[in-house]
Amino acid sequence: MELLCNAPAHATVPSRYIFPPEKRAALQLDNDLTPDDITLPIIDLHHGALSDDRRSQVAAEIIAAGKEFGFFQVVNHGVEEDAVQAFRDAAAGFFALPAKEKLPYCSYDMSKRFRLATSTSYDRGETRYWRDYVKFRCYPPSDDNVRCWPSKPASFAPRLVEYCEAVHGLAQTLLGLVAEGLGLDAGFFAGDLSGGDTHMSVNYYPPCPDPSVTMGLLAHCDRHLLTLLSQADVAGLQAMHGGRWLLVRPVQGAFVVNFGHQMEIVTNGVLASVEHRAVTNSVAARMSVASHVHPTDGCLIRPAPELVDEAENPAQYREFLFSEFMEAYDAADASRDDVLESFKIRRD
After folding, report:
1. Sequence-ordered list of residues with C-beta below 8 angstroms from that of 317, at least 6 positions apart, any chain
2. pLDDT category, 33, cuts 50, 70, 90?
3. Residue 220's domain is classified under what CATH number?
4. 297 neighbors 196 (Cβ within 8 angstroms)
5. Contact 209/8 with Cβ under 8 angstroms?
6. Model pLDDT for residues 205-216, shown as the tens digit of each residue
7. What is the DSSP letter of 287?
8. What's the CA gap between 105 and 278, in Å, rounded?
9. Do 209 and 13 meet the contact criterion of CB atoms below 8 Å apart?
10. What's the number of domains the chain is made of?
11. CA distance linking residue 280 with residue 234, whole number of Å
């Protein structure tokens, strides 16, 4: 497997990474990007120490952000910066290992519990994305998960456990606030809806000699319930907003939060899963760490009855098992419209 992290810095972009003009990010075209004065909402969680009044206000802010953007950033979230940076350093150390030490982890087999690969599993053509990544199950730290994690660098496993414990707690806090903001029971998302293994994607984008002809990652929506992303201080994430791309500008110490397909379905379309993508830059390497909260495979997914009104707001989606959705997502190559079409209720 030909990894970008194994290669010396490129002076030019190899032809296999050059996208045709109609598929490029086109950062130089002002009409493709949302104006700079439109930014993602930044929500202060006050380290989780919320009074009843403040909790209701924060829950309302999250729902408003979800309806408008499908994305928001959280600060004062209670995850210690030391824990975030320690794991980011360990993950960067893994990508920096000699090629022969990373080789045993290289695979495009999506059933593996820890795998290192490049570009994307959803190719949609011959052109490669300017990205290496590892994907793995990170929480809970069960024996089956831990035995698949790399032994080098030695700090990887202990720092990962610390980081994931903290992020899991934050995810549960956010899900409780989402439930309250929607008028659901505070524990609505507990149990099977958020009880599957949390998966992690660590994406590495080395500096690119010509970002105008490359892409970091294809436009897609996430398949699961909730994503929490650490992007540190290098921008590259873009989210679709109003038919244009919004650059998600880094905020010191923040997590970027977005909703997956399961949230859209469970809320009967109130909170949409929004397309997003990654672009490259020529100055600095960028590493993003995304934690994906999954339902259990056997979880029955359906719109919450409290959010369905057969007269005015009928159910938009049929019932299904989460495992069925996972199969449909892979078959549709992560295409938002194609995968959702399989689960929509037709009312012709």
Report:
1. 265, 268, 301, 302, 303, 340, 343, 344, 345
2. low
3. 2.60.120.330
4. yes
5. no
6. 999 999 999 999
7. E
8. 24
9. yes
10. 1
11. 10
Residue 334 has pLDDT above 80, yes or no: no
Judge contact between 221 and 328, C-beta under 8 A: no
Residue 247 placed within a domain: yes
| Residues making up the chain, counted from first to last | 348
Residues 346/317, Cβ–Cβ less than 8 Å: no
Of 239, 255, 276, 218, the residue nearest 83 (C-alpha): 255
pLDDT, mean of residues 255-274: 97
Alpha-carbon dihedral sign for residues 115, 117, 119, 125: negative
Q: State how far the Cα of 194 lies from the Cα of 273, in Å rounded to an integer.
A: 16
Residue 175 placed within a domain: yes
Nearest-Å Rg of the Cα atoms of the chain is: 20
Q: Are 218 and 133 in contact (CB under 8 A)?
A: no
Question: Is residue 1 domain-resident?
Answer: no
Domain carrying residue 71: 40-300
Q: Is the pLDDT of residue 105 over 60?
A: yes
Question: What phi and psi, each to the nearest 5 degrees, are found at residue 267?
Answer: -90, 10
Residue 174: partners with Cβ closer than 8 Å, 6 or more residues away: 62, 74, 226, 228, 257
Q: Is residue 11 in a domain?
A: no
Tell me if residue 219 falls in helix, strand or coil. Answer: strand
Q: What is the pLDDT of residues 145-172, one digit of tens each?
A: 999 999 999 999 999 999 999 999 999 9
pTM of the predicted model over 0.85:
yes
Residue 19 · residue 220 · CB < 8 Å: no
Tell me how crowded residue 70 is: count the other CB atoms within 10 A of its CB.
24
Q: Under a CB-based contact definition with an 8 Å cutoff, are residues 157 and 149 in contact?
A: yes
- Nearest 5°: CA angle at 225, between 265 and 157? 165
Q: Which pLDDT belongs to residue 27? A: 46
CA distance 168 to 302: 24
